[in-house]
Amino acid sequence: RHTRYISVTGVQTCALPIWWPRTWPQPNAGTLSGRLAIDETPALSLQGQLALVNFGFADDSGMHAAEKINTVWTLDANQEGARWRWQSRLDWKNGDVYWQPLFVSGYGHTLTLGGTFDTTRLAIEQGRLALAGIADVDFTASIDRASAKLSSASVKGSNVDLAGLYRQLLQPALQGTALADLRCDGRADFAFTVKDGALVSLDTTFRRASVEDKGRRFAFFGLDGALPWHREELRTASLHVAGGEILRIPFGAFELPLETRGIRLRMRNIEVPVLDGKLAVNDFAGSGEGGNWRWRFAGAIKPLSVEQLTTALGVPAMHGTLAATIPTIRYADSVLNVDGDLNFKLFGGTIAVSRLALEQPLSKTPRLTGDIAMRELDLDLVTNTFAFGKITGRIDADVKGLEMVNWEPVRFEARVASSPGEYTRRISQAAVQNISALGGAGAAAAIQRSFLRFFETFGYSSLGWNCRLDNDVCHMGGIENVPQGYVLVRGGGIPAITVLGYNRSVGWSELLARLRRVTQGNVIVK
Questions:
Q1: Which residue, among 199, 182, 183, has the nearest Cα to 191 in the 3D structure?
Q2: Residue 520: its pLDDT value, please?
Q3: HEC per residue, 141-170
Q4: Strand 64-80 to strand 83-99: parallel, antiparallel, or no bridges (unpaired)?
Q5: pLDDT tens digits for 331-377?
Q6: Cα(401)–Cα(419) distance, integer angstroms
Q7: Kind and range of the H or E element at 108?
Q8: Which residues are within 8 A (CB) of 228 and not within 5 positions of it... i.e. 6 or more apart?
């Protein structure tokens, strides 16, 4: 028996590029130590152990880098004729690796491998990746040596801790996206197969899984069920969702029937409880061609409480019910478009939303555009809702060229005017004072100096207001221009009062502050 030993101690890894492939990221820190035993009788065998201390590497692109890696690698290989049989273990004690888009950090991870190696193929017959605090993943694989490509693989992970998976592996890779700040919980199992370098099947089972955006843009709780997928064959899944919320609007439990085949998926006839109503989704179809997801669906909103909806959205409480038929909604290239108008009934009138588009809906700066037309709204209901002072009558309103970024308006042209027709038109003293305050104080002072202060309500013939928002400034006007400014309320009946506005340009934030002061307890602004 003849055994030879090769030992290295504290070799600087920066010297390794002499033997290191130039296409690999280059070592830039750390030392290498270890011992290799070579036994040539009766057949060649190798046993060895190598340790990397504070190892690091990087490439010029910055897409592949590592630092402070401490690992121990052991190898036991024996020659059997024209092939080798081998076993290996890698103990990852600590360190960080960034291999775009993944970032792996932590300690206590191990990788054990066993298989064969010959002139044509590297086979991993038994592999296990133990990710501390996440899961144990078992796998087999075959790699063609001539092409250096993965020929086949089978991977299975059981009882995966979703919180640990997201925190240690996924979150660093998702920085700068809509999924960068999530709270995850629950467990999952998965298994997938690869043939000829392509993914063929993926089966996932969820157990009480939850995903919640900390910014409260979306959340899904209590996801249970199996989700099978195959590249060529139709698969059917049925998932149960216990509840969640979208943009702070809560929804209840529902079943999610799902059909998949390759990059296509389809869902039929889903009803999601939303507050005290329902959202019906009909024939959802999607595909991921070219890596870009696109989907479409139509549906309806079955009557739900507007009071509950406005409370959930954090806006002044409104009353009544909301119901709507939803035309086809399409999503492609990170833009959501509505084919046709969204029609609602609210405040005793109608609201139509047209040309609605939402870009990057789940990003940190979504952009929404569209037009809104409101007709025959009952002013009594509107002003009571917003504690503005009592006004009876009806109004029409149009908002054209609306643009919102991160749900804050940055541009629009708005017009509010009395609806045509015959109806009672009265306005309270409080409403006059508050309207005057928005356009610049004037009418309120006139009331206090005259006999009009003895009247609680006044007659009017028409009212109107318009605002063009641009560069955070609201350029305002009214029914018509007069030398002193513009008319907001034109008097009519007995007693009658005319309200003028004087400020033609007001900062948007200042106007919102005035509105808040006016509507909070119907406080008169001075």
A1: 199
A2: 60
A3: EEEECCCCEEEEEEEEEEEEEHHHHHHHHH
A4: antiparallel
A5: 988 899 998 888 887 788 888 999 999 998 877 788 999 999 999 99
A6: 22
A7: none
A8: 201, 202, 203, 204, 235, 236, 237, 260
State the Cα–Cα distance between residues 392 and 465, nearest whole angstrom.
17
CA distance 383 to 390: 6
What is Dmax (Cα atoms) for the chain? Answer: 121
- Environment class of residue 22 by beta-carbon count within 10 Å: exposed (0-12), middle (13-18) or buried (19+)? exposed
Q: Which residues pair with 201 in a beta bridge?
A: 193, 230
Specify the DSSP class assigned to residue 523. Answer: P
Cβ atoms of residues 138 and 175 within 8 Å: no
Cα 52 from chain centre: 40
pTM recorded for the entire structure? 0.68
Per-residue model confidence as pLDDT tens digits over 450-496: 444 545 788 899 999 999 999 899 999 999 998 888 988 888 876 77
| Whole-angstrom Cα Rg for the chain | 34
**Burial label, 524 (beta-carbon count in 10 A; 0-12, 13-18, 19+):** middle
The answer for residues whose C-beta is within 8 angstroms of residue 371's C-beta and 6 or more apart is 353, 354, 355, 398, 399, 400, 401, 402
